[in-house]
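Sample entry follows:

_____
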Amino acid sequence: MVGPARPQFVLFGSSIVQFGFFQEGWAADLSHYYARKADIFMRGYSGWNSRQAREVVEQVFPKDDAVKPSLVIVYFGGNDSVLYDPDVPSSHVPLDDYVQNMRIIATHLQSLSETTRLIFLTAPPVNEEQMKEVLGIENRKNEQCGIYSDACLTLCKEMNIKAIDLFTLIQRRPDWLTTSFLDGIHFTAAASETVASEIRLAIFQADWTPSLRWDLLPTEFDVTVAASAVG
């Protein structure tokens, strides 16, 4: 542990999180934005679904840890939503099980402390043709992503958790199919900027005490503040 202590923001999810620092990713954007104000920790696991996350959430976020995260941003759902094929092993998780897994994850995170805040990211859309061409994947459909996204939004409303509807957000751009993905699934710099901007907005608008707004967090070793104190 290095000091001084800052608020900790933890990103917990699958490859959308793991690749968050790749090619001007959304995690890199947040880390730059909160430089000298908060520490961004990544716990991204490519290929994982909500079932796997549920199994390790208590290890990733132990209740007895002395320092609790100020914010946890959670993303699972895309891998859960792949089509079920009894003859092919996959990351598919039935919708009801997905919702229950996310509920258990949320409940554990909410129990960490009274000031641990949550933001859930829903399953984003995919470019099916690009995904097939680049990755050879055909079992992930945009329609299914939308269904799992809606289920996540419903759960978040029930549990009073801030949620960002990536499925709708990404598709707001008229050219989203050609500008949003590196491979049909993972974000380009343009899409990552959109995601990071929406996260920043959600934090800015949140009625949280203490606030995690960038402009209300102290800047570590602020020379201006130090100079005025001396004067």
Residues 226-231 have pLDDT under 50 and may be disordered. Residues 142-159 form the longest helix (18 residues). The chain has ten helices and five strands. The longest strand covers residues 8-13.
